[in-house]
Design brief:
This protein is mainly beta. The protein is built from no helices and eleven strands. The structure holds FE2/S2 (inorganic) cluster (FES).
Length: 139
Amino acid sequence: MIKFVDVMSEEDLPIGKSAIVSAGNDEIALFNYKGKYYAINNKCLHNGSSLGEGRIEEGVLICPNHEWRFDLVSGQCPQNPEMKAKIFPVKVGKGRIKIGFGKEIDKNASKGKAPSKAPSSLKFTIPTIQKPINPDEDW
Ligand code: FES
């Protein structure tokens, strides 16, 4: 069963922004891409860089370090099809963004391990709001 945890206000994550949210042992990059929210494990599968600091092109998240790419919806890495970043379900209600824990979205993920249940500590750190890489870019 998926447990959705309230992480932040929609107001705090406008289009084109990202946040990094810590939940238990997980660090999750949360994006508002063209008005929809996407949550993906923050740690790049290549060498651990923060994907929340990456940029998005045509629905593909690009790691800021060596530019590995991850599909925002599936987590699939085109450079290495055997790799998929862990993604988390997101829903919105009453102006709040909620991330779901408790069920692997991708059971074939070759790296990383989805939490089997909601994190024991549901205390989220205050999200880090990232500045847009290019303020003129409307993602
Ligand atoms: S750490 Fe992400 S591409 Fe190298």
